[in-house]
Amino acid sequence: MEASRVSARLDRKTVEKNRRIHMKALYAKLLSLLPASASKESVAATLPNQLDEAINYIKATQETLERMKKRKKQLMWCAGIGKDEENTCLRMPKMEVQDFSSGLRVIAISSTCDHQLKFSEAVRIVEAEGNEIITASYAVIGDATFHTVESMATGSGIGEADKVLEGLKYAFRAKLIREVM
């Protein structure tokens, strides 16, 4: 009976020793996964401090990953590849430029947020192409804003609608990318 107690005690000691060796190897592996600057400081630190440092590093990495996923989603949406229902402010407005013999009519439909900036940008681009603004208005209906800019052609009129449309698309796309970043 005495021999069985001694044997059981030795088995428990061996099991505990193996568990400590295994845990030490796992801690070493965890520390090897930390960035070089953090692990140099961790060599002299106590085990609880090293674990806290690893936890903080993992949390910071998770936050960075979430920010990057959100940014990727927004950039893909801006490029027209993905959908983003939660960021309706970041939608590219639907635009149409109608070419009349006397001038142009620009119609842009956008989300209600930031509609004044989009409206002023549309007016600026039409004027930049050498057109004289006759009327400019916008109306907010539900969650959409309708912008209408009518202008009188001062130039040749050939390709004016295309130039204005491309200018509008470029300006709004650049604005969306700036908002995402």
Automatic annotation (TrEMBL):
InterPro entries, alphabetized: bHLH_dom, HLH_DNA-bd_sf, MASH1/Ascl1a-like
Keyword Transport belongs to the record: no
Keywords carried by this UniProt record: Transcription, Transcription regulation
GO molecular function: DNA-binding transcription factor activity, RNA polymerase II-specific; protein dimerization activity; RNA polymerase II transcription regulatory region sequence-specific DNA binding
Residue ranges annotated for the BHLH domain, each copy included: 7-61
The organism's place on the tree of life at top rank: Eukaryota
Entry-linked Pfam families: HLH
Coiled-coil segments: none
Cellular component terms (Gene Ontology): RNA polymerase II transcription regulator complex
Family: Belongs to the bHLH protein family.
Protein name: HLH
Lineage: Eukaryota, Viridiplantae, Streptophyta, Embryophyta, Tracheophyta
